[in-house]
Amino acid sequence: MCGIVGLFLKDQSLAPQLGHMLTEMLIAMTDRGPDSAGIAIYGDETDGQLKLTLQSPNPEQDFDGLAEELGTALNTTVAQTVIDTHAVLHVPRDQFDATQRALAKIRPSVQMMSRGETLEIYKEVGLPQDVAARFDLRSMAGTHGIGHTRMATESAVTTMGAHPFNTGSDQCLVHNGSLSNHNALRRKLRRQGVAIQTENDTEVGAAYLTWKMMNGATLGQALQSSLDDLDGFFTFVVGTKDGFGVVRDPIACKPAVMAETDQYVAFGSEYRALVNLPGIDTARVWEPEPATVYFWSHDGGQTVHDKAA
Amino acid sequence: MQTYDLEADGLRGLNAALHQQSADTNQTQWAVINPKGSHAIAVGLDAPIEVTVKGSTGYYCAGMNQQATVRVEGSVGPGVAENMMSGEVIVEGDASQYAGATGHGGLLVIKGNASSRCGISMKGIDIVVHGSIGHMSAFMAQAGTLVVCGDAGDALGDSLYEARLFVRGSVKSLGADCIEKDMRPEHLELLRDLLERAGADAKPEEFRRYGSARQLYNFDVDTSTAY
């Protein structure tokens, strides 16, 4: 089944409450996905730095002294913030490959949840309210964010199988549904040099969009072409550094509700997820059309909405 | 008027209270407040009562309804009035997918739009949509009437049996074995009655009728060797 929530702020005065609002939405979708939960949040930019969100099954051992050891390996200073099983590291933007190599050597059991200038991803196995409490998601601020509650079908209930997935800098994707051509597509994308970490179908969807954008497509164009190239059921919600998109497959049996006010654009698998948002009673509420790309971006303070045919 | 606060008192209490009403109950008027998108509101009713839901609902509102009138002052999630037997369900806003699915009887009125699979496998229910409907509506519809004052999406009436379909606006495409048919006086009369009961401001003459070509579900002796 799975539940999806998303919130894209037009009015940045709500930014300090983003984590709180998204957490409420996430917990409302517990019935749809009690296995695991995750959230992608686009927060503060770190000047010239790349944010890496790491996860470890043994955080006390793995994160102890990690920043110092990594800093030595990279010959720079690395900042580190540990939150439960996750740690956010700030490394120089041009040292991503070197960081990956160093991490594989000094902390082989650490997994990378996300990389980007503003993106952080937190996800774990467990009930959404427990996962939210572990990471104190409510206290997080940001410009936009996406959450997911998982009821697993295509791969095992593990941290790495939880959503959101990040396959390119500041890109994330959550999915309700199941893809049926993910094995063939995974092989093809890996040959093209796209990193895919798991056997999960959704990660292939995320990697597909990354691959399209690596080759010059905008997020909107990448979503449009996913309608031709991905086989199966999907409602996708995606995030980029300054954008937020939604697309549903042509059959559109996976539910979706959207709401828009002057302050935000919100997505929920069900209306229940949206009921406590400010001004929801007067919001424009609608069901996104099948096989139609919806996309919003922060563009010089303006919000652009591009609905392709 | 009985007022029930769904957020404070819970779903089971509401449906249990509504199920306790008999044919000669004095508690004929009910208001449900704070629905907040909850599922299965006013499901399985079987008494001539009127229930007004003050807000939007989730899945399966007013499913399996008999006799009762359920009015939703908001929009509804998937499967509103699913398998309705009799009575009336009125939605002031929009309906999500498979509105009125498998319904045997009664009247479902949607004053906004309905999304995909509206009236799928309907078996005698009458559905009037003031707005438009999505793709695959009236799929395998067996009996009853679907009236659409706006437009219909792709594959209307695919694999249709004997349900009657009327659309005032455009039809994006017809499904397999669904064809346009002549509008006869009895159809105009049927439409006039349904439009009036549904409070729809439309004239029967503005509609086109669609029905089954009856090529798909009948046994055809000429193709018996193909099986």
Largest sheet of chain A: 7 strands, antiparallel
Query: What is the CATH first-level class name of the largest domain in chain A?
Result: Alpha Beta
Helical coverage of chain B, percent range: 10-25%
Low confidence ranges of chain B: none
Q: Largest sheet of chain B at a glance?
A: 11 strands, mixed
Question: What would CATH call the architecture of the largest domain in chain A?
Answer: 4-Layer Sandwich
End-to-end C-alpha gap of chain B: 61 Å
Rg of chain A is 18 Å
Tell me the greatest interface.
A-B, 16 and 17 residues
Structural class of the secondary structure composition of chain A?
A: alpha+beta
pLDDT < 50 runs, ≥5 residues of chain A: none
CATH topology of the largest domain in chain A: Glutamine Phosphoribosylpyrophosphate, subunit 1, domain 1
> Would you tell me the overall average pLDDT of chain A?
93
Distance between the termini of chain A: 28 Å
Oligomer: heterodimer
Structurally, the number of domains of chain A stands at 2
Decide which structural class fits the backbone of chain B: alpha/beta
What is the mean pLDDT of chain B?
A: 96
Record field, number of beta strands of chain B: 11
Secondary structure elements and pairings:
The complex is a heterodimer of chains A (309) and B (227).
Chain A: E1 3-9, H1 18-28, E2 36-42, E3 49-55, H2 59-63, H3 66-74, E4 79-83, E5 86-92, H4 96-106, E6 111-116, E7 119-125, H5 128-135, E8 144-150, E9 172-179, H6 182-191, H7 201-214, H8 219-229, E10 232-239, E11 243-248, E12 257-260, E13 264-268, E14 284-286, E15 294-299, E16 302-305
Antiparallel strand pairs in A: 1-8, 1-13, 2-7, 2-8, 3-5, 3-6, 4-5, 9-10, 10-11, 11-15, 12-13, 12-14, 15-16
Helix pairs in contact in A: 3-4, 6-7, 7-8
Chain B: E1 2-5, H1 6-9, H2 11-19, E2 29-33, E3 50-53, E4 69-72, E5 88-91, E6 107-110, E7 123-129, E8 143-148, E9 164-167, E10 178-181, H3 185-197, E11 208-212
Parallel strand pairs in B: 1-2, 2-3, 3-4, 4-5, 5-6, 6-7, 7-8, 8-9
Antiparallel strand pairs in B: 9-11, 10-11
